[in-house]
Amino acid sequence: MGTGERPLTFFALILPFLAAAAAPLLTRLLKHNAAWVLALAPLWMFSHFAGMLGPVSEGAAIAGGFDWIPSLGVRFSWYIDGLSLTFALLITGIGTLIVLYSGGYLKGHPHQGRFFSFILMFMGAMQGLVVADSFLMLFVFWELTSITSFLLIGFDHAREASRRAALQALVVTGLGGLSLLAGLLVIGAVSGQDDLSGLLASGDLMRNSPLYLAALILLLGGAFTKSAQFPFHFWLPNAMEAPTPVSAYLHSATMVKAGVYLVMRMNPVMGDTVAWETILPLFGGVTLLVGTLLALRQTDLKLMLAYTTVASLGLLVMLTGFGSEKAVEAAVLYLIAHSMFKGALFMVAGLIDHESGTRDIRSLGGLRGAMPVTFAAAILAALSMGGLPLFFGFLAKEEIYAAIAVGGGWATLVTVVAIVGNALMFAIAFAVGLRPFIGAAAKTPKHAHEGPVLLWLGPVVLALSGLIAAMFSTIAHQLLSSPMASAVAGQDLQIDISTIPHIGMPLLHSALTIALGIGAYLALDRLRASMASVLEAIGWGPDRGFDQAIRGLLRLSFGVTKIVQNGRLDIYMTVTFIAVALTLLVPMVLFGELPSVPVFPDLWFYEWTVVAIAVIGLGAVVYAQDRLTAIVSLGIQGFAVALLFMLMGAPDLSFTQFMVETLSVVILALVMTRLRLSVSDHRPTGQKILDVSVAGACGLAFGMLLLKVTQLPFDETLSTFFKNYSLVIAHGRNVVNVIIVDFRGLDTLGEIAVVMITGLAILALIRIRTKDQTVPAKRKGRR
Amino acid sequence: METVLSVLVGLFFAVGIYLMLSKHVIRILLGIAIFGNAVNLLIFTVGRIVREVPPIIPHGFDVPPGPVANPLPQALILTAIVISFSFFAFLLVLAYRAYQEIGTDDTDGMRVAEPEGESLPPLGY
């Protein structure tokens, strides 16, 4: 690669986001034809990555990046080996077709620009995810795919089903993202690495760590939710609420493979252990079977495809965890094949829906005449999905059977699962790719005819590439499959399988699969009915469980809120002051910091008098039976405080306090003539005891705190500073005044601002009243 | 002196808090006024007490010649008094307006923001 590689790769990473920003404006200008312009972005990215095929296929890895947050050692770095490159090519290649397809599919939609924007943002996130080197970048892009997926699923936000599906996907994959973050942190702590390239070079370090199992489970928590492994599979079929381009791109070809990518990426350092080779095939196998069985139940073309996607993801996980080089090769081949045929079939399903107005398999038929190009693309894709010779899917299937038919109980079980799963997927492939086109023409909501070039270009190109890749399998293996498999296995692998069938066990298994598949295809209606009754008998699934969990959460938080925020001020206050008393008293007692018993104070009699006045004032406020007594006694305690200030060398405070108390009493008197002061407090005895105890405890706590503090030595630094410099540098003899207007002048400004704002607020309160009273008619009408 | 003031401050707090625990807005407001005084006295006492000598520098001196009262807490309290007064005035008007609108000065009856028997939020999506 030349010297310009680094800035160009960086540009390729941010280009989708730039295109996303430009998309709404472009769409406004060019309408749906903006797709042709926008598709140039992924097309250029595709060509840029294709330029890396040469060096990467020779075993090199292209690394680059620059410091992102140098002070924290965070780098924006990428590491492109066979695995990353194949993914990047799939993302940008299929992405190009999807952008074009979206142009036709959402033609005339008022928010088409927004849609382009979302899907390009997703493309950027997904691309960043597969080439990311640093853990942080991996995680950020991982979460970004979840968020963009949320936006895309909820694109049709006026429908509740859309919103639910979007939220569900976000909750499930978001929780998985947290798990992944924890996993990456554990891995980082164990290995001391913060990027993938460093981790990949760490050998057996992870496997030998006592934290291996914890890291593995956390990591798989992320991978399994993203890649919809059982029991987290339920969000993926629901995500079909999104427009079909999204289903084809995110929920089939790319995003849901992020989990598989992660598992494959970690295989060299985390794989080859008992835990790995038990958990992965187990979950993968169960997912494969559950996915295919649930797919049988569906009548909606998209949902059938969605469940087979779940199944395919299960198959990929199962193969990756099987633990042999052959299985890795098979997984790689199947992943490439699946992206092509499933992307094509989804687009076909969308096309049928778009042109005929329905995607219910029971009301479709005989479309071959009306939609010949679509039919051609569909049948090519279905042949690849069914794993028939001449197609890339066939290579994958042969390799799968070659890999797992190695004898032994575990391998036999895996083989049986694979055969059953593949046979059912075969049946679904033709149910989607063949059945709507043959037979008698069915009456559809719209009169079906061939879609525009924007719509059929994608499926045709993808379906043909499945055929071409298989025909030139040597080149495909050399450039794509072998480097990818080598990266997954962590050692050099050469894939040499070709489309020419070899007589042997794999071919026999393939034949068996096809035979079973044809049987299932013919018996599809009966299988569907029996699956429906089985599911009805079970009656519960994780999808309903999700609803129950969300409702439960809402109810729980509502209940907790009701307890914590019961709307009763006295309870809030009581709780607050109990907390205050405990915070003060408990540490004082626990740490033995209680004040020592003071000696009896020696006060002048007039000082005692002022104290006594204050106490009398306080008592009178509590026992006041009428308004006047209450106001006067409040004044008494306030003036007593002012006197205290006066006696203790604080004349300024004293003046202010006198003024403020007087004003308070005046305002209070004004308001209280209008407000009722009930004769007694009406507190029931229990309430009274509680209140007295709480208030008493707080008073005791503050008193003891103060006593303790005054018994400790006093640091006079600050006071001395003010005393010494008041005249010398601030030219004022009254130290208190100097502090207020000079040393802490800004604080005083703040204080003035507070007083002013309060004044304004009071004014506003009063003026609102005036307005209401002047328009009595309006007020009456409102009530 | 600090001892007496400590006890007095404790009493101020106790009375203030007792009144604030009432259900009647007007008593709560009385409590808040007393609470403000309690806090001011607390700050004052923490700065230690020097009787009868205000922190003023006489003519002919650059610094106070003998021990004077601590100026720092005084400056703080001066600010606090004014702010607590404006706060008190605002609360008074607020209570009065609330009484006019809602027709009660019992906090149990003031349930506009958190109405009683609120139903569950919508459980859909």
UniProtKB/TrEMBL annotation, chain A:
Pfam family, one: Proton_antipo_M
Keyword Oxidoreductase: no
Membrane disposition: Multi-pass membrane protein
Record key words, sorted: Antiport, Cell membrane, Ion transport, Membrane, Transmembrane, Transmembrane helix, Transport
MrpA C-terminal/MbhD domain span: 613-676
Transmembrane segments: 6-27, 34-56, 76-101, 113-130, 136-155, 167-191, 211-236, 248-266, 278-296, 303-324, 330-352, 373-394, 400-432, 453-476, 503-524, 571-591, 603-623, 630-649, 655-677, 689-707, 752-770
Coiled-coil residue windows: none
Domain of life from the UniProt record: Bacteria
Keyword Membrane assigned: yes
One GO molecular-function entry: antiporter activity
GO biological process terms held by the UniProt record: monoatomic ion transport
InterPro entries to which the protein is assigned, alphabetical: CPA3_Na-H_Antiporter_A, MrpA_C/MbhD, MrpA_C/MbhE, ND/Mrp_TM, Proton_antipo_N
PANTHER family, per database record: NA(+)/H(+) ANTIPORTER SUBUNIT, NA(+)_H(+) ANTIPORTER SUBUNIT A
Record's protein name: Putative monovalent cation/H+ antiporter subunit A
Species this protein is from: Mesorhizobium zhangyense
Automatic annotation (TrEMBL), chain B:
GO cellular component: plasma membrane
Subcellular location: Cell membrane
Keyword match Cell division: no
Principal place of residence: membrane
Topological type in the membrane: Multi-pass membrane protein
Residues passing through the membrane, by range: 6-21, 28-50, 75-96
Assigned keywords, A-Z: Cell membrane, Membrane, Transmembrane, Transmembrane helix
Source organism, top-level taxon: Bacteria
Claim: Transferase is one of the keywords in the record: no
NCBIfam families tied to this protein: PRK09094.1 (NF006573), PRK12658.1 (NF009301)
UniProt family annotation: Belongs to the CPA3 antiporters (TC 2.A.63) subunit C family.
Name of this chain's protein: Na+/H+ antiporter subunit C
Organism: Mesorhizobium zhangyense
